[in-house]
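Backbone-to-sequence.
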């Protein structure tokens, strides 16, 4: 379930100069374009973007209210704004980066790349979970944690079958590469470590559920 980076692009009808959206799509980005801040807030939960780009220069607003609303709703998701030189800086507008017109595609790419969770890496993205298997890092709802190779393997296996109950013995067999499943307590310990990495409250897991007497299920 490897995915490409998702960009939520807010651009009004007053946009000046060339649109970079078609070129970004050709480069493999999944770009969703909306024309207002309200439309972005409505679309964001389902689209679940990796980055929000707001072309403030094309809107009848300075973008501050839109930035703050998106920041509150999508905690941890970076925001890049496109401005005219007189529209303020990123700090004033509650964004991570402000890019003033005019600029080239290369400059835009140079600003986008550091904001994405993984470009060129092996990334799994399911619901709010983003697992970078190359960097062995997981992001979830604004939190980020580094995982051991075995934890990466467990989470990868669960993310590839979201909503499916995975029997403990089957999961143990797949991750530890063994036919012996007489003692799976080691798996339980690893599951507890994984919950500490992705759950807000590991004692009341929201995502990684125990199905008593059977195994585990990833609910996203």
């Amino acid at each position: 379930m490897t995915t490409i980076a998702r960009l939520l692009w807010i651009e009004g009808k007053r946009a000046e100069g060339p649109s970079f959206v078609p070129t970004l799509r050709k480069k493999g980005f999944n770009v969703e374009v909306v024309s207002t801040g309200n439309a972005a807030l409505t679309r964001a939960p389902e689209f679940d973007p990796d980055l929000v780009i707001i072309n403030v220069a094309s809107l009848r607003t300075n973008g501050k209210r839109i930035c703050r609303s998106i920041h509150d709703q999508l905690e941890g998701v970076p925001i890049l704004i496109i401005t005219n030189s007189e529209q303020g800086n990123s700090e004033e507008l509650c964004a991570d980066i402000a890019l003033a017109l005019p600029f080239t595609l290369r400059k835009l790419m140079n600003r986008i790349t550091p904001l994405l969770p993984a470009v060129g890496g092996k990334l799994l993205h399911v619901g709010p979970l983003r697992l970078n298997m190359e960097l062995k890092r997981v992001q979830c709802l604004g939190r980020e944690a580094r995982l051991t190779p075995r934890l990466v393997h467990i989470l990868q296996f669960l993310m590839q079958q979201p909503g499916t109950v995975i029997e403990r013995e089957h999961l143990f067999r797949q991750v530890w590469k063994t036919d012996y499943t007489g003692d799976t307590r080691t798996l339980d310990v690893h599951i507890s470590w994984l919950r500490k990495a992705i759950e807000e409250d590991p004692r009341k897991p929201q995502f990684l559920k125990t199905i008593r007497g059977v195994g585990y299920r990833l609910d996203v």
